Amino acid sequence: MSTIAQTQKRGFAGTVWEYLTTVDHKKIAILYLIAGGFFFLIGGIEAMMIRIQLAVPNNDFVSAGLFNEIITMHGTTMIFLAAMPLLFAFMNAVMPLQIGARDVAFPFINALGFWLFFFGGLFLNLSWFLGGAPDAGWTSYASLSLASEGHGIDFYVLGLQISGFGTLMGGINFLVTIINMRAPGMTYMRMPLFTWTTFVASALILFAFPPLTVGLFMMMFDRMFGSGFFDVAMGGNTIIWEHFFWIFGHPEVYILILPAFGIFSEIFPTFARKRLFGYSSMVFATVLIGFLGFMVWAHHMFTTGMGPIANAIFAVATMAIAVPTGIKIFNWILTIWGGSIQFTVPMIYAISFIPSFVMGGVTGVMQAAAPADYQFHDSYFIVAHFHYVIVGGIVLALLAGCHFYWPLMFGTMLSEKLGKVTFALFFTGFHLTFFIQHFLGLMGMPRRVWTFLPGQGLETGNLISSIGAAFMAAGVIIFLFNVVMTQVKNVQVGKDPWKDGRTLEWAIPSPTPFYNFKQLPLVRGLDAYWIEKLEGKTEMTPAEPVGDIHMPNNSFVPFVISLGLFIAAFGAMYQVDDKAWAIPVLIIGMGVTFGAMLFRSIKDDHGYHIHKEDLLDDADKGGTR
Amino acid sequence: MAAEEKFTPQTWPASPEQATLEGKNKFLGFWFFLGGETVLFASLFATYLALKDSVPSDSHAKAADLFELPLVFLMTMLLLTSSLTSVFAMYHMKNYNFKKMQQWLFITVALGLGFLACEIYEFIHYYHAYEHTFTSSAFGSAFYTLVGFHGGHVIFGLGWIITLMIRNAKRGLNLYNAPKFYLASLYWHFIDVVWVFIFTVVYLMGMVG
């Protein structure tokens, strides 16, 4: 069977094959990082095109129709194909190590989740080359999207459906991993905050994605198979889509922000060199945010006409979320208070996140007041608000996480100097772009408009906003340069590169051995590694003798299952045009998927064992990748 | 390989589906999956209730015109019984009696196929007698989507159980395939529970409402 030596020394083709078939959470994390990063760049280019178009009044840089496609794809790409997979990258890279596990509960399904996401995202973006992208906004309200010509919305529906399955599987996988795979002594109340937020976000995924699945199915049936869910002439109701979209969509923003909170909750104690203030209240606040996140979806629909009672209930529930979020903000501040602070790049991002995110939170509470929301609705005020929470919260967390966890994922350290330049450009650009948009919105500029007229007092604000966007783009380019330079130089930094790592992921050799832990560690409290350090040790206390380790086999099946759905989606889409090949393609694609599932079911896959002797040989070399 | 170890009824563990870590993970993961499925069906029920009897004109049949309780009662009995027989199968699985488990699974599959045949007849009947189709009205779309999703789950469940029965026919039970049988039966129970709600919300409430 496979041995440790076999995993070393591969050619290029061998490496590609390794990544196509891998079930190792650390490699899947890298796949998520690359694919999510790629889509982040595409979404960023779309954002730049929006800001160029809106830089001056009466601009015709892009046509009105193309503008609709760009804003739709910018939102959809950034939420589904950039933010979520990038967070999944960190969840995969860090969470199993933080709880002292050798892998996730379902390595095969982990790979399947990635490939479904990847093919879904690819399908969605192919719309640019195959007759036009979706153009009904990222919310794709039925009354707009059913009237949209061409196949743009079909790409949206099918692409999100495929990638949504992948996300759902990822969520179940993380839940089971955290419940069943914790190392001895790792009780729930000793779990690092990033693990906790992954746990709650996964639970939200489990219950929030099925409504989206149903909504997308109904949209697919309406557009491609002649049903009438949203068609008023057939007795349908267009508001049903809005409800399903937001029953999914509102928990979705917590699915994104909670892991971001988790990343910052790891960074603050590390660089303040103090334990996280109010750990148990942080856990409580995380769970409470997750719970309340399901109670508030209709605040996106205040102007739909639900009536004053429904609006009042959802307004109050929405305001209530500010309480646990406030608990978190104060805990972070008190973690820094009196600490021995190091201003590394991750810490700078973390500290700048607090005021940025609070600003987004404050405008959020403003919108929660339903009467006021009638004024803000569909204006640039809304655009400013959600970019403050998403960029000021999630994107700052992703950049901070990249710097913080880069040594864990790649064994190298991103340049601190370039990181600070990126931060300065990105942070300045972010506030320059979006702060002014609050006022544009209050002055009456509606969101999603293609252009605006001169002489209405909107010129200066829009120009400033576009200049800010250029700053952010420059920051991202320098970040990419930093990544390339770091990997070219390839200076390995070894174990615990920040010197003050507190949790289990910093206690293992670098690069991380593919089996993670030779012996499962004994966890003796919160910040397990820090406890050992306080006693002058550099290693965790093992909880078991060295023994054989069971490992899963690589598999190409996840790729094939996902590819089948990708093929089938083309068939489903083009049968609308009465193309003769469409139905056969649909059947072939589904056949490939179900055939691969059948193959997986029939063929036994017991994995293999790494033998004790090999592990002992390996000990001196510090592990292999 | 520990998972392929041969057992006797005496050495067979009490909960073979959770005797290995893989089994434990599958058990818990599948319950979570069923939680997600519950939300999926809840969404479909909500849609159905919102669009029930919502038709473009009075010439279209409504719920009270369509449904015939004797057929639906037969279907309910078939599916409820099949849930019971799958419990018997799992009882024999836990007692390491492979042959009896296969027999009861076979009966479960037969009952499931009977249910499916009734459902196909029902749909064809609605189409010919009432021109009640997926594309005739929002009510039709919601009805066929809810009941059809359930029917699709029945087909998938049958395919799953049959695959397991054929694949393992010659090698009997071990700790590798015991969780698989257990999860398939759990899935079958879930399908049954959903049908109980369909019977109540769609058919019974359709007759009186």
From TrEMBL, chain A:
It is a multi-pass membrane protein. PROSITE patterns: COX1 (PS50855), COX1_CUB (PS00077). Its cofactor is Cu(2+); heme. The chain crosses the membrane at residues 29-50, 70-94, 106-130, 155-181, 193-221, 244-264, 276-297, 309-334, 346-366, 386-406, 418-443, 463-485, 556-574, 580-599. Keywords: Cell membrane, Copper, Electron transport, Heme, Iron, Membrane, Metal-binding, Respiratory chain, Translocase, Transmembrane, Transmembrane helix, Transport. It comes from the Bacteria. Its main location: membrane. Pathway: Energy metabolism; oxidative phosphorylation. One of its GO terms (molecular function) is cytochrome-c oxidase activity. One of its GO terms (cellular component) is plasma membrane. The keyword Metal-binding applies. GO terms for biological process: electron transport coupled proton transport; oxidative phosphorylation; respiratory electron transport chain. Cytochrome c oxidase is the component of the respiratory chain that catalyzes the reduction of oxygen to water. Subunits 1-3 form the functional core of the enzyme complex. CO I is the catalytic subunit of the enzyme. Electrons originating in cytochrome c are transferred via the copper A center of subunit 2 and heme A of subunit 1 to the bimetallic center formed by heme A3 and copper B. Belongs to the heme-copper respiratory oxidase family. PANTHER family: CYTOCHROME C OXIDASE SUBUNIT 1. NCBIfam families: CtaD_CoxA. This is Cytochrome c oxidase subunit 1. It comes from Domibacillus antri.
UniProtKB/TrEMBL annotation, chain B:
It comes from the Bacteria. It is found in: Cell membrane. PROSITE patterns: COX3 (PS50253). SUPFAM superfamilies: Cytochrome c oxidase subunit III-like. Its main location: membrane. GO terms for molecular function: cytochrome-c oxidase activity. GO terms for biological process: aerobic electron transport chain. GO terms for cellular component: plasma membrane. The chain crosses the membrane at residues 28-51, 71-92, 104-124, 144-166, 186-206. InterPro entries: Cyt_c/ubiquinol_Oxase_su3, Cyt_c_oxidase-like_su3, Cyt_c_oxidase_su3-like_sf, Cyt_c_oxidase_su3_a-hlx, Ubiquinol_oxase_su3_dom. The keyword Zinc-finger does not apply. It is a multi-pass membrane protein. Residues 1-207 form the Heme-copper oxidase subunit III family profile domain. Keywords: Cell membrane, Membrane, Transmembrane, Transmembrane helix. It holds the Pfam family COX3. Belongs to the cytochrome c oxidase subunit 3 family. This is Cytochrome (Ubi)quinol oxidase subunit III. It comes from Domibacillus antri.
